[in-house]
Specification:
The protein is built from 6 helices and 8 strands, in the order ββααααβββαβαββ. It has 174 residues and is an alpha+beta fold. It has one domain: Gcn5-related N-acetyltransferase (GNAT) (Aminopeptidase). It has an 8-stranded mixed beta sheet. Helix 1 packs across helix 3. The radius of gyration is 16 Å and the shape is globular.
Length: 174
């Protein structure tokens, strides 16, 4: 297991047994607006993704980690994306699959673990997050964890014929 363990959750690398979880998550149309997905994913495509998930963050510029509870069940994902080792930054995104696991500190603990990891192990200078202006729970989470609102991307995401603003949050290593 990756050494990213908190009190109530731990983060680990993707494993082959995560195929069904990924299939359910990636084909959930409710998250397509933030993931940029336009069509469903097949299990075959997701299996290819899992087969390559072991590749190094320096090579693929991304790291996706499973958020697991104390019963070893995967309840969400936290992603580092657009990893930029030259400018020492990366984007971060988080999703907790089921409503019953939200607003219980899981996202907060996962964000703490990944922030500590990138600032101490990867020696990054900053993390950033792109959050829809209408996503109040995520905005509260990121602000609580020390991310600052640094800009608004006007009409950034098109959903069902309507443009939505996306807010850019940033956390610079102290």
């Amino acid at each position: 297991m990756l050494g990213l363990k908190g009190e109530n959750i731990y983060l680990r690398a993707l494993e082959k047994q995560d195929l069904d979880f990924l299939y359910k998550l990636e084909n959930n149309t409710e998250i397509w607006e933030v993931s940029g997905t336009l069509a469903p994913y097949s299990k075959g495509v997701l299996q290819l993704y899992l087969d390559n998930a072991h590749r190094d963050i320096y090579e693929v510029k991304q790291l996706r980690l499973c958020i697991c509870n104390t019963e070893d069940l995967v309840i969400g994902l936290i992603d580092l994306f657009d990893f930029d080792p030259k400018n020492l930054r990366a984007g971060v995104g988080i999703i907790i699959m089921e409503e019953k696991n939200r607003n219980k500190g899981v996202g907060e603990e996962a964000l703490d673990l990944v922030s500590n990891y990138v600032f101490t192990k990867l020696n990054l200078h900053q993390l950033y997050a792109n959050i829809l202006e209408t996503n109040a729970p995520s905005i509260r989470l990121f602000e609580k964890k020390g991310f600052q609102k640094v800009g608004i991307k006007k009409d950034w995401i098109l959903t069902d014929g309507t443009f939505k603003n996306e807010v850019l949050y940033q956390k610079v290593k102290s």
